[in-house]
Amino acid sequence: MKIRFRPSLQLLAKTRIALRFLLKIDCRIVCTNFPGALGGMESIYVAYMHQCEHCLPLEVTIKRNIASIIRALATEVTRWYDCHRNLLPDASLDYWKMICWYSHGTIDYFATARALLQNENLNRRQRYILICKYCLEGEQRLSEELTADDLIFISINAGLTKDLRTWMEALRSNTTLNWKQITDQVDTGNYHTKNPRNIFSVDYLGLLYYFPKLTNAEVRYRCLYLAILHGSIRPFYLYLCFARLPDYEVDDLFNRFPLRHRYLVIENFLQWPLQCMFLSIIERFRRRIWNQIYLDLFKFILFERFERGQLEYEYLSLLKQFWAQLSENSRGLIMDDRLYARIAYVMKFNDQYNITPNLIELYIKSGEAWQDQVVLI
């Protein structure tokens, strides 16, 4: 795919500032997503954000944006922790020293996995599962430490699939995997919806490693189909998979995806930090996007961003540009939907930070939404 993620220098600078503030928060609080296991942490987060804003000698809008980016980075950590909670040493450890970041504000899962392997608090079973999940080559020496009981435990409790067991055997014998053979086996087997327990639906952590090694377009389709179906691939990594494919294969994938998959692919570009690509992606796939997908994307922006106050990006400007790009037919169908009143209301604003989380619903409940005939230009 020719469209490339090119974060602005401003985004990189804001991310760097936000990360410095995030690293000052107790890692355990961030990992449990503030209101999670430790309970009642949301108020701590809000107070800390206000403190951060006061510390920055910047314009109010920029300070608010950085505070929202801190929340986006915290969400990134929470999701990373959820994927690894059974593979990590004691939670009292400071994960900040092990988590590796890309400059644009997402976690480098592979670099972090290698950093974890160097931690002496990781037991040999955790270490070995981590190697298998990420398909980390060059770590065969660790297999020599495992006992027969360890291998049985790992096979039973780690959710390892047949393909991952193949990887385990390769590690034990210090041999290289034959990816053409693996691809052929997948191509001739039933690796679609009827057989969810396979490498593509379970071993998503190693996807960036094995995806480029798959030699068959059909197998690559099945890989992404299952990863999207199970929600098991991070937005930036899904983008990287698409970026490694030629345009004609991307078109074929998108054409074959059911509508729900198409929506999820595009929604992926409303997630941190890919929002700068969203309008280009809409234009790229315009002829393959149904009006229901447009409607669902507007719902996501309104209710997952404005209502939740998650404004790490200039969503108001994006919303207005998104609307301006629509065809007359698409606009007409959306204007017939109840959601249109909310879209029209939000587009009256010039500053997204003036749209408080409850204003949209209050406006609808007041009855004014259906009385105002707002014409969007």
Tell me what you see in this structure.
This protein is mainly alpha-helical. It is built from 22 helices and no strands. It has helices at 9-22, 27-31, 42-55, 60-84, 109-117, 124-134, 148-157, 162-173, 179-188, 199-202, 207-210, 217-229, 235-243, 247-256, 259-267, 278-284, 291-306, 315-325, 328-335, 339-346, 359-365, 368-371.
The general outline is globular
Q: In this structure, how is the largest beta sheet organized?
A: none
Kindly report the average pLDDT value.
81
Q: What is the straight-line distance between the termini?
A: 32 Å
Number of strands: 0
Portion of residues in beta strands equals: under 5%
Low-confidence stretches are 191-197, 368-377
SSE series: HHHHHHHHHHHHHHHHHHHHHH
What is the overall number of helices?
22
Helix share bin: 55-70%
Radius of gyration: 23 Å
User: Would you tell me the structural class of the helices and strands?
Assistant: mainly alpha
